Automatic annotation (TrEMBL):
The keyword Transmembrane helix applies. It is found in: Cell membrane. This is ABC transmembrane type-1 domain-containing protein. The chain crosses the membrane at residues 103-123, 135-156, 162-182, 203-226, 232-252, 264-285. Coiled coil: none annotated. It is a multi-pass membrane protein.
Length: 297
């Protein structure tokens, strides 16, 4: 008798194997991992690690300033903190910061809108792609602050000159990042969008933008950093020309009057605003989008 015939019964039906039930091991028999100690759990918090880094930098600053022992060249952290709190209390620093941010947001929004238009044209037609490549090759290496003399000549003393240089600072890095993200979208998603009849702006908004969102967010952060530092540098010239301005003018004026502690207080305000934008705006936006969707770790 062969194996195949032995495994079958009459009528050619296969032999039914006897059923059995496997009892699982009790859950209590498995080792249970102990919870981490509270210092380790606390150290897992990102805000605590960043706060420790800032505290270490402040301590190093204080030590170097005391060794230097020259408040005109390098005021101590304590003296800078006193100047910062005093200028915050009298409203000068908040007023200067609001003046800078109001100009920055207008220039930043205009730069983002123009970058979206250019990248939409670039992915829609060959002429748009050539236009974006040519313009970015021409103007991206050009420092935005170098256009300030022309902006003052064209638009005069006012916020329009600052907005012009801010658009230049935001437009090109954001357009390059966005276009690189669009080019990295898988062909499968592109074909799916075309099969649904999506064309033009709807194709870009519904298919390309969600798929390229990590690159777009990176471009937004780079554009923000470029715009923020360009604005402070431009306000140094703009403030010296018109006698008014935001944080850049505050720093320039106190430097002329040799109030070095207030100069450092203005610089600290610039840094704090950058940290708040990074921690509250961009990090929250990434957590709610690309990290939540599994596109970034």
């Amino acid at each position: 008798m062969t194996v195949s015939s032995a495994a079958t019964l009459r009528g050619g039906m296969p032999e039914v194997r006897p059923e059995y039930i496997r009892e699982p091991e009790p859950f209590t028999a498995m080792p249970v991992a102990r919870a981490l100690p509270w210092p380790q759990r606390l150290w897992q918090q990102g805000w605590l690690r960043k706060a420790v880094i800032l505290l270490v930098l402040a301590v190093l600053w204080e030590v170097v300033a005391r060794v230097q022992d020259n408040d005109l060249l390098l005021p101590s952290f304590v003296a800078t903190a006193h100047a910062f709190l005093a200028d915050m209390a009298n409203g000068e620093l908040p007023g200067k910061a609001l003046a800078s941010l109001s100009v920055l947001l207008r220039g930043y929004a205009a730069g983002v809108a123009l970058a979206f238009v250019l990248t939409t044209l670039a992915v829609s037609s060959r002429f748009g792609r050539d236009l974006l490549d040519t313009l970015t090759a021409m103007f991206n290496p050009l420092p935005a602050i170098a256009l300030l003399p022309l902006a003052l000549l064209w638009f005069g003393l006012g916020s329009k000159s600052l907005i012009f240089v801010l658009i230049h600072a935001v437009l090109w890095p954001l357009a390059l990042n966005t276009y690189a993200g669009f080019r990295g979208v898988p062909q499968t998603l592109r074909m799916a969008g075309r099969n649904y009849g999506l064309r033009g702006v709807r194709y870009v908004v519904l298919i390309l933008v969600p798929a390229a969102l990590p690159a777009i967010l990176s471009g937004l952060k780079i554009g923000w950093a470029f715009a923020w530092r360009t604005l402070i540098a431009a306000e140094l010239v703009f403030g010296a020309s018109s006698g008014q301005g935001g944080l850049g003018w505050f720093i320039f004026q106190n430097r002329n009057e040799l109030y070095t502690d207030r100069v450092f207080a203005g610089l600290a305000t610039v840094i704090l605003i950058g940290l708040l934008m990074e921690g509250l705006v961009f990090t929250t936006l990434e957590r709610l989008t690309v990290r939540r969707w599994g596109m970034q770790h």
